């Protein structure tokens, strides 16, 4: 297993880049990531790490590989999916530019405003017709990725139509796509990450590892706060500081024979007074925790 990180762990993602004044620039972020001992990075918002030769040269300068990139697709909405598939093609262009032959397009269902307002509740869900449209949409997106030489993976994610255990089961039944296991989003959606590996281990192609403060998670669900508010409250903690049994999770990963990327993703919203040094130090501690406690 190889260990990467994500710009999101440093506060750089679609909601913050170009909006928050203290979001780190790509070179300073990647320098901190490499210095902490990570081997790879996720793409972050398309264009954040650069385009074309700039992207390839920047990754090479910091000695990092591209592990994957988030691609939200409104699979069950035929009237919108074409726009999202064009965005997928742009992300794959960036993969090509980076020379990232093994990077995974990380498919996230587009979800809905109603789902975003009800994290962890699995409602409102798709009906049978919606699931049929969803499966057709996934097939179209897979075909685009496969034609370009990439292996996509599906991320069960809060605020989407693939969040609860029942929805994950339905998604895997209706498609042959690989699955991303995220220790935080699975818990938020009502799944046990270790049981998820036992149930779906043969489908796992990519891993996001994070720790979770269950008291904060429960307050977010009970209050129907959105996931961004959960991040502000510190729902996702440094590794070893929360309630996930991460050593048992890694034992289960080895039991199913997983040998791909482990990407630390500590979703965070930077405070207005927060400096890069704060998130950078947290990611150093996360990397050290993995070495000391689970041997990766």
SSE topology:
Layout: E1 2-5, H1 26-35, E2 40-42, H2 52-62, E3 65-73, H3 78-98, E4 104-109, H4 113-116, H5 128-147, E5 153-154, H6 165-174, E6 178-182, H7 183-189, H8 193-200, E7 204-209, E8 211-212, H9 214-222, H10 227-232, E9 236-237, H11 246-255, E10 261-264, H12 276-294
> Distance between the terminal alpha carbons, to the nearest Å?
7 Å
CATH class, anyone? Alpha Beta
Identify low-pLDDT runs.
none
Shape-level CATH architecture: Alpha-Beta Barrel
Secondary structural class:
alpha/beta
At CATH level 3, the topology is TIM Barrel
The radius of gyration computed from the alpha-carbon positions, rounded to a whole number of angstroms, is 18 Å
Helix-strand string: EHEHEHEHHEHEHHEEHHEHEH
DSSP strand (E) fraction? 5-15%
Q: What is the total domain count?
A: 1
Largest sheet: 8 strands, parallel, barrel
**Globular, elongated, flat, extended or rod-shaped: what is the shape?**
globular
Query: Mind telling me the CATH superfamily name?
Result: Divalent-metal-dependent TIM barrel enzymes
**Helical fraction:** 40-55%
The number of strands is 10
Strand order of the largest sheet: 1-2-3-4-5-6-7-10
Average residue pLDDT? 94
